[in-house]
Amino acid sequence: MLRSITSMDDIRRLLKVLPGPDEEAAIQAVKHDSRLTKPRGSLGRLEEIVLWLSRWQSRDVPVMGRPQSCVFAGNHGIACYNVSAFPAAVTRQMVENFTRGGAAINQLAGVLGAEVTVRALHLDQPTQDFTIEPAMSEASCVEAFCVGFDAVDPDATLLCPGEMGIGNTTSAAAICHLLWGGRAADWIGIGTGIDKAQYERKVDVVARSYQLHGDVVTDGLDVLQRVGGLEIVAMAGAIFGARWLRIPVMLDGFICGAAAATLFATSRDSLMHCMVGHGSSEPGHRLLLERIGKRPLLDLDLRLGEGTGAVIAGLIARAAVACHSGMASFEDAGVDSGHL
Ligand SMILES: Cc1cc2ncn([C@H]3O[C@H](COP(=O)(O)O)[C@@H](O)[C@H]3O)c2cc1C
Ligand SMILES: O=C(O)c1cccnc1
């Protein structure tokens, strides 16, 4: 599959023929659930999680044995406008931190029992300034997409994509503005904690990117190439790769959502294998989730990225699987089953 991707059109073509869910596995999972010692529906969204995992893992009793956290890192040309509270050098420094196990994502992945895969994408070659030209060439975009695809562990039971890239809330806002319009400011928040002057510059960068690309952009993948970052493209590639491997994906916050949204805008069914782990405190994320029609599992006021919210939500998925796989049936426990 990966070898057949050499152009953006290859990705477009493959997006039209994605594998679908295993409805038979879900039917069996519902049957199993109906025998468990609880009123039907009483575990609320935990039951929804089990069905979702079941559809994509093709198991009537899904498993959580091998979750994967994938962190992609890239640098952004638009960081030169001072739109982040931190310097671009922090991207590389954090990659070293991920590798040593010192970041938030490492601790959370440890709690979930997830392997952390880190992929840095040409940190010494930031994307181009997308207020004056496309962020990257088609060749760089395809390459980054394939890095993402290739990073997915084919045996993973759940994928939690994450990112690191100083300036990438600006890139995510530009993606959303190009996909869905509105006012530039609708998509912009404080990111790492910027001041008023930085906020205004950020709005200006996103508004100018719209002026440059708005009339010529063709679809979600084109938006990705024009105003995305290499780590955002790689996340899109990982989400797409997981779909081909039929691995369920827990989406993270605003940046991850923007990556996923470029696939959604290109092909509506492309995110059927994804759940949204949490709602970020970046204001654009709520709007984005309305547009892609997904409701977050958690609301923790996170605004970190790295895949942290996705991994925390993975713990909820583990709780859901524990109930589904470990609970006794009415029959085995000798509990009256009521009017089922
Ligand atoms: C130390 C540190 C660790 C991070 N981990 C994730 N981010 C997050 O913040 C960045 C986006 O915010 P902005 O657009 O304002 O730069 C991304 O790198 C994102 O993953 C971090 C940011 C910092 C400073
Ligand atoms: O929601 C996110 O993904 C996010 C928010 C702020 C900074 N970095 C990431």
Number of strands: 5
CATH class: Alpha Beta
The small-molecule ligands in this entry are: alpha-ribazole-5'-phosphate, nicotinic acid
Q: How far apart are the first and last residues' alpha carbons, in Å?
A: 45 Å
- What are the low-pLDDT stretches, counting only 5+ consecutive residues below 50? none
**Overall form:** globular
Task: Report on the architecture of this protein.
With 340 residues, the protein is mainly α. The protein has a single domain (65-318), classed as Nicotinate-nucleotide-dimethylbenzimidazole phosphoribosyltransferase (CobT), large domain (Rossmann fold), CATH 3.40.50.10210. Helices cover 50% and strands 8% of the residues. The chain has 14 helices and 5 strands. The protein has helices at residues 8-15, 23-35, 44-57, 89-100, 104-112, 138-151, 168-180, 196-213, 220-227, 230-245, 254-266, 283-292, 308-326, 330-333; strands at residues 67-73, 115-120, 158-164, 249-251, 274-276. The strands form 2 sheets. Strands 2-1-3 form a 3-stranded parallel β-sheet, with helices on both faces. Strands 4-5 form a two-stranded parallel ribbon. Helix 11 links the parallel strand 4 and strand 5. The radius of gyration is 20 Å and the shape is globular. The N and C termini lie far apart (45 Å). The relative contact order is 0.18. Residues 84-86, 90, 94, 163-170, 191-192, 304-306 line the site of alpha-ribazole-5'-phosphate (RBZ). Alpha-ribazole-5'-phosphate is lined by residues 84-86, 90, 94, 163-170, 191-192, 304-306. Belongs to the CobT family. Keywords: Cobalamin biosynthesis, Glycosyltransferase, Transferase.
